[in-house]
């Protein structure tokens, strides 16, 4: 406990990497000791168009010239917010045109859960094992991993968890259900991609029984999986959708989208966020949409993701210990048959920043602007790191 960092910053991990960040640019982190690390996790799907993208910096500067925070209640019309909402909605169907802005993903989910209860007058919430929806009490209550939940129980009552990607289990939902909340692809839970029929089946059941389908696109959204939103792969439109992370490429923002009648229940006193839809974040988000469209990054995420997945599958096909390589677009998981948290440090020694989730899944969420050369570096170096780790484990077994 010698440095100001050690004395004053609340630590969030048991195995701190302790990197001193000097600056970040594009896909690179530059450390105070002179090292350059390539960022293949993008601050967990946040810096999707690369660190300090010039268009985002310019948008922030322009907004600084006009105004920062003004007032959140009372329907003050702020151009950055209105323009961003209009552009975001232009990629969405008529049923998802009204946007409630927040500061973060978990706040967006809090709003979505409260919307569901108030709009339907029902109280039962359905969620899925392995899911992650945020760390505040409501979002945590529908997060399907007991490791996160159990220290804080009792949480919200009337929440049922069903196994993810098992259609038969959906019949457990009853007529008291206000909503079903799920990620279209589970991120924190290990990059779990459901079968093609799963989400359409869930949508059908929601329609037949009057439950709201709420899709948490906080990690999957904004182009990462090769569509603006992951539900577009199967055309399964949600009644409520939540977004955050990559929207403003590093400026905090979240959003809860619904049709007008449902979104209308979130009146003042019902849900609020002083900083929600902050003008700086909205102007940055507007620039992000523009960059994604102009640079055709959604098609790029799809093509590059497929390429990386195929190359990793080939390169690691003979490696004992690698169970499966899966994902969609630039959301990729490599599942091992053993705990592999130490791979983060080993990859760092090779100049790569990666992440491990659930203890045994390497998670890759690279920036959508990653070049072919950077993808080659990722595949080559990561393959070496995983092979060396698995070979050492085999020898010591
Ligand atoms: N939902 C999903 C799917 C997430 O991946 C996360 C964060 O990892 C959240 C919600 C919570 O978002 P935030 O950390 O912005 O509150």
Tell me the number of strands.
15
Main sheet: strand order: 4-10-9-8-7-5-6
What does the overall shape look like? globular
Instruction: Give the SSE string.
Output: HEEEHHHEHEHHEEHEEEHHHEEHEEEH
Which SSEs are present, and which pair or pack?
Blueprint (H helix, E strand, L loop, with lengths): L3 H5 L12 E5 L2 E4 L4 E4 L2 H4 L8 H11 L14 H12 L7 E5 L2 H16 L3 E5 L8 H5 L4 H4 L9 E4 L14 E6 L15 H12 L2 E5 L23 E4 L10 E5 L1 H4 L15 H16 L2 H19 L6 E7 L2 E6 L6 H7 L2 E2 L1 E3 L3 E4 L7 H25 L1
Parallel strand pairs: 3-13, 5-6, 5-7, 7-8, 8-9
Antiparallel strand pairs: 1-2, 2-3, 4-10, 9-10, 11-12, 12-15, 14-15
Helix pairs in contact: 3-10, 4-10, 11-13
The structure holds pyridoxal-5'-phosphate.
Structural summary, described in words:
- Strands 4-10-9-8-7-5-6 form a 7-stranded mixed β-sheet, with helices on both faces. A 4-stranded mixed β-sheet has the order 1-2-3-13.
- The two termini are 37 Å apart.
- Helix content is 35%, strand content 17%.
- It has 2 domains: 4-52 and 296-396, Alpha-Beta Complex (Aspartate Aminotransferase, domain 1), CATH 3.90.1150.10; 54-294, Aspartate Aminotransferase, domain 2 (3-Layer(aba) Sandwich), CATH 3.40.640.
- The chain is α/β, with parallel strands linked by helices and 397 residues long.
- It has 13 helices and 15 strands.
- It has helices at residues 4-8, 42-45, 54-64, 79-90, 105-120, 137-141, 146-149, 198-209, 260-263, 279-294, 297-315, 343-349, 372-396, and strands at 21-25, 28-31, 36-39, 98-102, 124-128, 159-162, 177-182, 212-216, 240-243, 254-258, 322-328, 331-336, 352-353, 355-357, 361-364.
- Strand 2 and strand 3 (36-39) form a beta hairpin.
- It binds pyridoxal-5'-phosphate (PLP).
- Residues 44, 104-106, 109, 132-134, 183, 187-188, 216, 218-219, 244 line the site of pyridoxal-5'-phosphate.
């Amino acid at each position: 406990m010698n440095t100001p960092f050690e004395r004053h910053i609340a630590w969030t991990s048991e195995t701190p990497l302790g990197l001193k960040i000097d600056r970040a640019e594009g896909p690179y982190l530059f450390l105070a000791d002179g090292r350059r690390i390539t960022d293949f996790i993008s601050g967990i799907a946040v810096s999707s168009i690369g660190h300090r993208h010039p268009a985002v910096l310019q948008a922030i500067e322009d907004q600084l010239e006009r105004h920062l925070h003004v007032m959140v209640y009372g329907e003050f019309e702020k151009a950055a917010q209105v323009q961003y909402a209009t552009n975001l909605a232009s990629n969405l169907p008529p049923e998802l045109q009204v946007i409630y802005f927040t500061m973060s993903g978990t706040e967006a989910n809090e709003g979505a859960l409260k919307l569901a209860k108030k709009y339907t007058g029902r109280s039962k919430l359905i969620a899925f094992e392995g899911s992650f929806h945020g760390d505040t009490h409501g979002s945590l209550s529908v997060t399907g991993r007991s490791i996160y939940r159990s220290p804080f129980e009792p949480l919200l009552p009337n929440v049922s968890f069903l196994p993810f990607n098992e259609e038969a289990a959906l019949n457990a939902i009853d007529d008291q259900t206000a909503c079903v909340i799920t990620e279209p692809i589970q991120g924190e839970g290990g990059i779990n991609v459901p079968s093609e029929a799963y989400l359409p089946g869930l949508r059908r059941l929601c329609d037949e029984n009057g439950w709201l389908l709420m899709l948490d696109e906080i990690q999957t959204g904004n182009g990462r999986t090769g569509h603006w939103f992951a539900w577009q792969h199967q055309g399964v439109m949600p009644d409520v959708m939540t977004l955050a992370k990559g929207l403003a490429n590093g400026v905090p923002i979240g959003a809860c989208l619904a049709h007008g009648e449902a979104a209308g229940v979130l009146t003042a006193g019902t849900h609020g966020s002083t900083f929600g839809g902050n003008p700086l974040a909205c102007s940055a988000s507007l620039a992000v949409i523009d960059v994604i469209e102009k640079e055709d990054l959604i098609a790029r995420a799809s093509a590059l993701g497929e390429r990386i997945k195929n190359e990793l599958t080939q390169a690691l096909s003979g490696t004992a210990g690698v169970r499966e390589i899966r994902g969609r677009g630039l959301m990729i998981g490599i599942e091992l048959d053993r705990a592999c948290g130490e791979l983060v440090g080993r990859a760092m020694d090779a100049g790569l920043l990666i992440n491990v989730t659930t203890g045994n899944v390497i998670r890759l969420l690279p920036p959508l602007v990653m070049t072919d050369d950077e993808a080659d570096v990722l595949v080559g170096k990561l393959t070496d790191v995983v092979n060396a780790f698995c070979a050492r484990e085999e020898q010591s077994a």
